[in-house]
Design a protein that fits this description.
four-stranded mixed sheet; 4 strands; alpha/beta; 264 residues; globular
């Protein structure tokens, strides 16, 4: 009899966990996610109807498999949608890509330091991809996340920057050469172009964020922000870089891009 009772309790617990997980997964995808995308994500706004459906499918899949939690801040539906959009934008050109190297995204109210502390005077980090014991984790400033999508005139998006680092890291190294994405024949021309541009940046003869001159990995993340935020401007001012990024990401965002100042 005791054994039957225990089996019954285990079965009840199993069923509860199934339904609990279903509720969690449902809660992870806001009911208003389509309207939040339409109101806040310019990249999504400029897709045709078929691509919007595909983008939505990727967003919901990402949200169901990735935990997003806040540290001393509330994770609102908008935050979930913006994190997911940041993840999907760089991989939208790839049919079946998933972030196998990510399990959790942690939102902090604002800047934090290298020890993930959000108090004190050394808080100057907006986003970070974890390594070592924190492998599979990403930390983001909630303010920076929202600023990346609300400011439509700059070339910056912190969350896209960090997800590009994850793409770069998928081959084991954050070195600016995403071997899983770039065809072998493009590797040498790409790195040559990277080093040439970094030299120009160090001389101050470019409009690219100087942080990109830190190393090849940071350059790739910074120029990718520019590519997705202002593709029209990158194509005009840096056509060689733009053409190479189109090949890497298998996208041509300038083809659909309308800058807010000229959009109807």
């Amino acid at each position: 009899m005791f054994g039957l009772i225990m089996m019954g309790l285990i079965l009840i617990g199993y069923i509860y966990n199934i339904f609990s997980r279903r509720r969690t997964l449902h809660a992870a995808v806001p009911d208003t996610y389509r309207s939040l995308l339409q109101d806040n994500v310019r990249y999504y706004q400029q897709l045709d109807d078929a691509d919007k459906v595909r983008f939505e499918e990727k967003v919901t899949k990402f949200l169901k498999r990735t935990t997003i939690e806040g540290v001393h801040t509330t994770v609102e539906p908008l935050d979930r949608v913006l994190v997911a959009a940041s993840a999907i934008i760089p991989i939208f050109g790839f049919k079946d890509w998933e972030y196998f190297n990510l399990t959790n995204v942690i939102l902090y109210p604002d800047t934090f330091d290298e020890s993930y502390q959000y108090e004190g005077n050394r808080r100057n980090i907006l986003g970070m991809v974890g390594s070592g014991p924190l492998n599979g984790q990403m930390a983001l400033s909630k303010n920076a996340l929202r600023e990346g999508f609300s400011n439509t005139t700059d070339k910056s998006n912190t969350a896209i920057h960090e997800f590009v680092h994850l793409l770069d890291k998928s081959d084991g190294y954050v070195d600016g050469l995403p071997r899983n994405l770039i065809e072998h024949s493009y590797s040498i021309p790409w790195m040559k172009l990277v080093h040439q541009t970094i030299q120009q940046m160090m001389s101050g003869h470019t409009d690219i964020n100087p942080y990109g001159a830190t190393n090849e990995g940071e350059f790739f993340a910074v120029i990718s922000e520019y590519f997705f935020e202002r593709p029209d401007l990158l194509a005009e001012k840096h056509p060689e870089l733009y053409a190479m990024l189109c090949k890497i990401f298998q996208q041509n965002p300038a083809a659909n891009h309308q800058h807010p100042e000229t959009a109807f």
